[in-house]
Amino acid sequence: MPPVDKPYAESCDQNREPILAVLAPLFRERHRLLEIGSGTGQHAVYFAAALPHLSWQCSDRAEHLAGIRLWIAEAGLSNLPPPLELDVLKHWPAERFDAIFSANTAHIMGIDAVEAMFAGVGAHLEPGGVFALYGPFSRNGQHTSPSNARFDAWLRAQDPAMGVRDQRWLESLAAAQGLQRIAEHAMPVNNVTLVWERARVAGDRRVVAEHAGGVIRIPA
To answer: Which Gene3D superfamilies does the UniProt record give (predicted)?
Structure first.
């Protein structure tokens, strides 16, 4: 088998700092995180180094694991275990986590895979756990910027199954899994980080009030 070159994505270096600014307070009290679609592994190494209290579990489809292992081996971090194989449509780990994160995945997945991702999050997220999803999203059927509209058209030209997903649809998928949105963070280059929380107990409902920084949760 030929040697594997360590993969690299420039976008990971460009967006890692603003993403970390959102994740650091969000995951301050978390212990075990699953990253869905770790890609090159760059984000995992950077975030795990900045959040040493958190076990950052990478995952991706089998063909991406060799490259991720190279980044993990070079980093030598005790909170960065070997990556797991995860195909949202058919193969999930047995473990449960109190945090789940995914970046730039929903728009490259087909609709059935996005639905499967949310179902998997619902099955593997502990009560009180949080799910953070980063990427470009449309709102109420409208793109939030001309660049996102162009990106969506480019994606669909490559593969009709891909495309920028609408936030209202993602909210419906989350609600079906017992997840309530607790924050929405505007990010550079017209991206967004959406954050949901799984109820700590059955029937845990909250009144949600909008404010400039995202969403405030008020006990009902």
So the answer is: Vaccinia Virus protein VP39 (3.40.50.150)
